[in-house]
Design brief:
- Helix content is 23%, strand content 25%.
- It has six helices and 17 strands.
- It has two domains: 175 residues, 3-Layer(bba) Sandwich (FAD/NAD(P)-binding domain), CATH 3.50.50.60; 101 residues, FAD/NAD(P)-binding domain.
- Helix 1 runs parallel beside helix 2 and helix 1 packs parallel to helix 6.
- The strands form four sheets. Strands 1, 2, 3, 4, 5, 6 and 17 form a seven-stranded mixed sheet that branches. A five-stranded parallel sheet has the order 7-14-8-9-10, with helices on one face. It has a three-stranded antiparallel sheet with strand order 11-12-13, with no helix packed on it.
- It is α/β, with parallel strands linked by helices and 292 residues long.
């Protein structure tokens, strides 16, 4: 079991790791890619670079620095989290355990462009199967998404719901479906809108067909920090994780830094919050009873 798992290989996550590793904490950093920063062609507003630097170059140098100091970097997609006395971070290929977790996966830049979606949030539309599956026992639900995160949410709902349908909104679903889950099916038709009286009742497709459901779980793309934080009861506000001045959430041992905490979506802010989270994690780790 590691001392710290950091989810995210961007500036916030790497900055945090520089402090935890130098304090001799066993640190694992898990990330799927460089997120929005990796797509930045030129960055001219970050301290210390006389000439413009690409986002890819900045990411690469940060990761190399963390590796040199002793951090373990794992390239994988995190699809879930749990807690059994220690934190369990679930990826596509393996589960990892740690005493402390720092969420630093950034912030989603867009939501599904489906008519009326926002109107039914909390009225049949949910963003967390772990949180809300209980309310749909023996009912028909759908999961919106086409990747591993959508499959993970569907598998979590399957033992509770009567029927689970994965809606890919016109995308191809490439994941392998476990044969043991007979109550999961897939519809790959493009969605036009969702409707209902006071709560969600139906999904309308571009071809004119309708699909009746009691609940719709959003799992588009990969799981963001807020999606994962909700699974273990952390307080969130939309896509933002609520933290205090120590970058700590309301859950003991869970910290967050970078874009996922809201505010300016800037590298400088992410690096500062990562550094703050890293130093506070070191203090927290030293205070744990089993270390005295």
């Amino acid at each position: 079991m590691a001392d710290v798992i950091i989810i995210g290989t961007g500036p916030a996550g790497i900055s945090a790791a520089l402090y935890t590793v130098r304090a001799k904490l066993d640190t694992i950093i898990i990330g799927r890619d460089g997120g929005a920063l990796s797509k930045a062609e030129k960055i001219e507003n970050y301290y210390g670079f006389e000439n413009a630097v690409s986002g890819e170059q900045l990411l690469s140098q940060g990761i190399s620095q963390a590796k040199r100091l002793g951090a373990e970097i794992i390239t994988d997609e995190v699809i879930g989290m749990g807690f059994d006395g220690a934190y369990i971070v679930k990826t596509k290929s393996k589960n990892y355990k740690a005493k402390i977790v720092i969420m630093a996966t950034g912030s989603p830049r867009k939501k599904p462009a489906i008519k009326n979606l926002a109107d039914f949030e909390g009225k049949g539309v949910s963003y967390c199967a772990t949180c809300d599956a209980f309310f749909y026992r023996d009912k028909n639900v759908a999961v919106l998404g086409s990747g591993d995160y959508a499959l993970s949410e569907a598998l979590e709902l399957a033992p509770i719901a009567k029927q689970v349908t994965i809606l890919t909104d016109g995308e191809n679903f490439m994941q392998d479906m476990p044969e043991s889950h007979r109550n999961i099916n897939i519809i790959q038709t493009k969605i036009s809108e969702i409707n209902g009286e006071n709560v969600l009742e139906e999904i309308l497709f571009d071809d004119g067909s309708k699909f009746y459901v009691n609940g719709l779980f959003i799992a588009v793309g990969v799981a963001g920090s807020a999606d994962l934080a909700k699974k273990i009861g952390a307080q969130t506000d939309g896509t933002k994780i609520i933290v205090d001045e120590k970058m700590a959430t309301n859950i003991s041992g869970l910290f967050a830094a970078g874009d996922c905490t809201g505010g300016m979506l800037q590298i400088a802010k992410a690096v500062y919050e990562g550094a703050k989270a890293g130093t506070e994690v070191v203090k927290y780790h030293r205070s744990l009873p089993n270390l005295k």
